[in-house]
From TrEMBL:
Family: Belongs to the peptidase C56 family.
NCBIfam families noted in UniProt: PfpI
Residue ranges of every copy of the DJ-1/PfpI domain listed in the record: 4-179
InterPro entries: C56_PfpI-like (IPR006286), Class_I_gatase-like (IPR029062), DJ-1/PfpI (IPR002818)
Species this protein is from: Streptomyces galilaeus
Protein's name according to its UniProt entry: DJ-1/PfpI family protein
Pfam families found in the cross-reference section: DJ-1_PfpI
Length: 188
């Protein structure tokens, strides 16, 4: 049986932060499922950095089908979880089904990869207390309020938790996450 990885996301997730790990993990030989609040065609966005703007800009991105609704996910079937950023984490952190899923990964010490605004979800399940993390730099105070030590660097590995700032950091993020996976949840 192939080792399964779960990606949890929703509408307004950053396109690259969903699709890059989805494709990279499949390339590595993992079976990857995308879960969202409901089985539907998700609408992602593109966050870009443009001269003259104080923050990122947002444009329509790709659409992609969710394989599962959060209510259909059995966390025990998955070796790890990936939490993309974008605007999706802002509202997903209020979903009780998703919070149960994420808590299960932390309770069983399974690998978790988070990027950009994704740590808003791990903060919602008290998964950041006492940890070192990075996230989109504007979330530094949120990470500190969640009990984490924030580091503004392309990737931070804290045991099974691998975090990055945003899609420009993908190579370092996936390189470090794959090191954790190869040790804790190798492809079978």
């Amino acid at each position: 049986m192939t080792t399964k990885i779960l990606i949890v996301t929703g509408d307004a997730a950053e396109s690259l932060e969903v699709l890059y790990p989805y494709q990279r993990l499949r390339e590595e030989g993992y079976e990857v499922h995308i879960a969202a609040p409901a089985r539907k065609q998700l609408r992602f966005v593109v966050h870009d950095f443009e001269p003259g703007f104080d923050t990122y800009t947002e444009k329509p991105g790709y659409t992609w089908p969710a394989d599962l609704a959060f209510s259909e996910v059995d966390p025990g079937e998955y070796a790890a979880v990936v939490i993309p950023g974008g605007r999706a984490p802002e509202y997903l952190r209020n979903d009780p089904e998703l919070r149960k899923i994420l808590k299960s990964f932390f309770d069983t010490d399974k690998p978790v990869a988070q990027i950009c605004h994704g740590p808003l979800l791990t903060a919602a399940v008290d998964g950041l207390t006492g940890r070192r993390v990075t996230a989109y730099p504007a979330l530094e105070l949120d990470m500190q309020a969640a009990g984490a030590t924030f580091q503004d660097t392309e990737v931070v590995v804290d045991d099974m938790l691998v975090s990055s700032r945003a899609w420009p950091d993908h190579p370092a993020w996936m390189r470090e996450f794959l090191k954790v996976l190869r040790t804790k949840a190798p492809v079978t």
